[in-house]
Amino acid sequence: MLIKNPAKSSLKENQVTDENVYLSRRKLLKSLGYIGASGLLANSAQAKAFDWFSSDKTVFKQTPLEFNKDQNAAAFSQRRTPEKMATTYNNFYEFGTAKSDPVKHAQEFKVDPWSLKIDGLVENPITLNYDDLFSKFDLQERIYRLRCVEGWSMVIPWIGFELGKIIKQAKPLSSAKYVSFATVYDPKQMRGQRSRFTGGGVDYPYVEGLRLDEAMHPLALLSVGMYGKTLPPQNGAPIRLVTPWKYGFKSIKSIVSIKLTDKEPPTSWNILIPDEYGFYANVNPKVDHPRWSQARERRIMGSSVFDQKRIDTQMFNGYEEVAPLYAGMDLKKYY
Amino acid sequence: MLISSIVSSPLRVPNKLIILIRVLIHSVSIVYLSYVFYLAFSGQLLGDPVQYLLDFTGIGAINLLLLSLLVTPLALWLKFGQILRVRRSLGVYAAIYAIAHLTVFIAFELQFEWGLIVSEIVNRPYITVGFIALIVLIVLLITSLPAVKKRMGKSWFSLHQWVYLACALALIHYIWSIKSEELQPIVYFIIGFLVLIIRGKKLNIFKK
């Protein structure tokens, strides 16, 4: 067994630089690939991993973005999750159910040309092409906490524009009460959409929804970038939603359709397991998931097991300013 | 057994080969486990290291457990009595991997929040099931020390049939822990229960 042992000093580097880490990580994973993967014996699911580890596949090209820095000082007081973690640990079942599947299987995903339609109950339907996503609105950075329903969390610097801005431009009709979102449906490019098992049983395309007043809240962001660059495909390129006060699965990725409706739209996880995932999915430490506690979370601050910090989960993930949206609602019932 | 009557002569290999297999089981299990933990400690794994360790130790334990259960049918089938000697090594490492699995859960997933650890084990059925499987494996691990085994006499064999219960619970724990349909746990579930059915006929606990 040939194992590359990097010098101790190189470990620290892992947590900062991109290019270097990426290269050294690949070398390591190559050596790991032969004996690594998750089972003691190789099995079919891992066999595919070998392709990735042994061949030098192309890596999706991200471009630097121009944007206004996040002025919210409080956001900086929390340590950001290293970019490497946020871009290699993803739930994006369109590319496979394992956390490492999206980064492995999404690198050749085509984002240009792209078409995002905003229509439904609006006066002025809008279609944005790939370039429009970055040029129609001023881009700003937002450093948000991301709390996954599974119990882990990260702090990520997103770049994008407020969802409310584009909805306002589309001029919602007075009958519009909800906003529904859909991810691109492209089984040719998304292996999870081709097979029930690779895609975790979700009925694709993935759909999500918000109440119109939730969608108009200034915290709701349409993100086109992270860590100063355009989004990589595993994080939902070219455009995704970020609703930081809700569990991560609400933040739908690779959006092609935003439709205003008068009825509560169906949402993918709610269709799949209705008693575990509701329409609202607000982060709430007092309402447990039927199978696990939501009172605390594991903040992923780095790539070592020692960089994981257990902290209390906050109501609305700490974004108390959204509380008025739910005044008088029983949040146990509307989970 | 029908099949064993087809194979006419018992299979024999040099003792050295059996010793070699056992050395291999020991070294691969230990080196592999330590190597993956080293990568997790030094932050060199792809994705979340805690989840990786949980998956690695959990699936590793199930793999070893299934392998150990296949030893006896193999021995009967091929009249290959010598191979029974690798059964213990496999079983011991299945228990060690399962202990490592719980250790990761306590130390890195819940980080020694004992109140939460206890309530998760008690209140979350899939964790309860996994925990019972682990307790059984620990009892079997302790009683597989040669001195203990000798002292227990015949009762050792009936105690060690609990391994089938541990295996069934471990598989239920695995399939219950996932968020939605995934192929790998389902395949494990099917293979595991085939093994259990094959072996089930031999079980005293079902006959009583």
> What is the N-to-C order of secondary-structure elements of chain B (H for helix, E for strand)?
HHHHHHHHHHH
Distance between the termini of chain B: 22 Å
**Overall residue-averaged pLDDT value of chain B:** 88
Low-confidence stretches of chain A: 6-55
Strand percent estimate of chain A: 15-25%
Rg of chain A is 20 Å
**What is the CATH superfamily label of the largest domain in chain A?**
Oxidoreductase, molybdopterin-binding domain
| Structure classification of chain A | alpha+beta
**What shape does the CA trace of chain B take?**
globular
DSSP E strands of chain B, number: 0
Radius of gyration of chain B: 18 Å
What is the terminal separation of chain A in angstroms? 50 Å
How many domains of chain A? The number is 2
Low-confidence stretches of chain B: 204-208
Protein described:
The complex is a heterodimer of chains A (335) and B (208). By secondary structure, chain A is α+β, with helices and mostly antiparallel strands. Helix content of chain A is 22%, strand content 20%. Chain A is built from eleven helices and twelve strands. Chain A has helices spanning 9-14, 19-35, 44-54, 73-77, 83-86, 101-105, 130-135, 163-170, 191-194, 212-215, 268-272, and strands at 115-120, 126-129, 140-147, 152-162, 178-183, 207-211, 221-226, 229-230, 240-242, 255-261, 296-300, 308-312. In chain A, a hairpin with a 4-residue loop joins strand 3 (140-147) and strand 4 (152-162). In chain A, helix 2 (19-35) packs across helix 3 (44-54). Chain A starts with 8 loop residues before the first helix and ends in a 23-residue tail after the last strand. The model of chain B is unreliable at 204-208 (pLDDT under 50). Chain B has one domain. Chain B is globular and about 55 Å long. Helix content of chain B is 81%, strand content 0%. Chain B has 208 residues and is mainly α. Chain B is built from eleven helices and no strands. The chains are: A alpha+beta (335), B mainly alpha (208). Chains A and B meet through helix 2 and strand 11 of A and helix 2, helix 3, helix 4, helix 5 and helix 10 of B.
